[in-house]
Amino acid sequence: LRFDEKVRVVVFKSEVKGVFCAGADLKERAEMDNAEVEHFVKRLRSLMDEIASLPVPTIAAIDGYALGGGLELALACDLRVAASSAKMGLIETTRGLLPGAGGTQRLPRCVGIGLAKELIFTGRQIDGQEAFSMGLVNHTVPQSSDGDAAYQRALALAKEILPQAPFAVRMGKLAINRGMEVDIASGMAIEGMCYAQNIPTRDRQEGMAAFREKRPPQFTGK
Question: Which domains are delineated in the chain?
């Protein structure tokens, strides 16, 4: 996906009705020794980092349970859409653990430190409407009889992104992600570098031409 220029948006969904991702198999984990557990969690953290660093926008379609590592997977995505009946939580403390695949870092960046601490300390599960009210998800929708309401809303969101200039979207994601980790002056410099890369693109020229000619732009990603 990272190197396929035809890929414009990635949507993560589950093929299991009622479950987005239920997290680690604790029965399997119980049979691991300490070194195996550490190796497992490092690999999981690496996977989430790979997802977070995909150059194109990513959307998690949460149509059911997203618990522990399942919510960490959703947090590694750029955008999240949830069914109102979905259940989400970093429940690790209820099992004698703490989030180990990015949850302690990505959740506070998403909802703020106070709410993140409360959710992690209590291991509480929240539904899609609660998640929306605290900014954990971008959209919440009533669940459909097919059980894929969040996926359908995620597709609609993806279709809003698709007509936009691909390189500009990629640079926008890069500028946001890198800029959020530094002070605002450094962030402005990062934005400037990303903007400079976008200036010579054909898509920028096409966008300007389409505006002058009062027609929809035809972006090619070049």
Answer: 10-162 (3.90.226.10), 166-213 (1.10.12.10)
Total-model pTM: 0.92
Q: What is the CA radius of gyration of the chain?
A: 19
Residues 6+ apart with CB under 8 A from 20: 13, 14, 60, 61, 62, 63, 64, 65, 66, 70, 73, 74, 86
Which tens digit of pLDDT belongs to each residue from 77-95? Answer: 999 999 999 999 999 999 9
DSSP single-letter state for residue 89: E
**The two three-digit tokens of residue 36, written as one number:** 């195996």
- Pick the catalytic residue: 23, 60, 66, 72? 72
User: How crowded is residue 17: how many other Cβ atoms within 10 Å of its Cβ?
Assistant: 10
**Is 130 in the active site?**
no
